Amino acid sequence: MLKIAIDCRMIGSGGIGSYISEMIPYFLEKNECLLMGTHEQCMPFLRLHNVEFCFCDVKPFSRKELLNFPQDVLKKIHKYDFFFTPYCNIPSGIKIPVFSTIHDIVFLDVKGLTGFIGRMARKWFYKRAVKKSCVIFTVSEFSRERIITKLKCRKPVELTYNSAPAYLCTPPEEETKKQDIILFVGNIKKHKGLDTLVDAYLMAREKGLTSKLVIVGNQDNFRTGDTEISKRLSQTAPELIEYTGKISNDELKKLYASARVLVQPSLYEGFGMPPLEAMTTGTPALISDIPVFREIYEKFPVTFFHAGDSSDLCDKILNTEFKNVELGELKDYYSYKRSAELILNTIEKYK
Fold it and tell me: Is residue 302 helix, strand or coil?
């Protein structure tokens, strides 16, 4: 039995939150774990066996985390043998072996996401995680190569693939009817390629497309370096493009299942969850042909288009016959259980 302190403070923060939330139950099956976070973040797991809770609301990447992490929290952490974090932020003062996760290094690889100071700050955090960790975990061979190359990482880098979250894998209580909508899911940053999708969508509308574009995100938080696209969006009728804002898991599951197709036009990803999530609910995925998507979705029934090419995406939207997806055995191709076991087996070697 391992004794592991787990940083849960990223639960509720998109893909990283899902990554750790889905693996905690497997960590707890045969090990003693300290869950560090807020009551809200840790509550779903506190009814399980072998678990202790430690309240901590210190924000990740904050000055307090780096310089003045609470001594009472450190005291509890040091009763355990190992510390695991699902991201690259590591609190100061931890003296037990650390195992961290770098999902991608997008801020170093993609220009324009942040300024020079922001990029250097992120690089510092990445390099600090490498220095302080016994092993780095990541979510794709693509990210593994970029971490080793860009960060000159000489520590072991192990793959722990993402998977579809449990709530999407359970059958729906009632059949969801398909609607004539094209779905985009993800944070709304430039590397997600949303400008390519919007451009392609508006071109397709001019050629007779009747579908509505639904963007899971908030219009007020829309960020792009392309002012022309921003202008186009502001002039687009709301009945054509809908922004959902933040929605619940149940609402997202229904959207996935009811969409005609999910489009993921990313220019860069560490893994890219939405295509897998959509296909888990039976909805086909139309995705950019970036290297990591070729790696992750090579065996899956996806349709690729040329990354950044609005004309090709428009053509695929108009001329592809999108049919419901039956993944069959592919549903188990990626597994949080296997990823958790890999992490635990890796930590076991340092016992």
Answer: coil
Which letter, b or e, does each residue of 287-316 get, where b requires 16 or more Cβ atoms within 10 Å of its Cβ?
bbebebbeebbeebebebbebbbbebbbbb
With H, G, I as helix, E, B as strand and everything else as coil, classify residue 3. Answer: strand
C-alpha distances in angstroms, 254 versus 167, 248, 290?
11, 10, 28
Start-to-end C-alpha separation, the chain:
10
* Residue-wise pLDDT tens digits, 186-239: 877 888 999 999 999 999 999 999 999 999 865 544 444 444 555 665 666 667
Separation CA 168–CA 279 (nearest Å)? 10
259 near 214, Cβ under 8 Å? Answer: yes
- What distance in Å separates the CA atoms of residue 244 and residue 150, rounded to the nearest whole number? 36
The amino acid occupying position 273 is M
- Nearest CA to 165 among 8, 299, 84, 278? 278
Name the one residue in this structure whose structure tokens are 């690729």: 304
Contacts of 341 (CB under 8 A, 6+ apart): 26
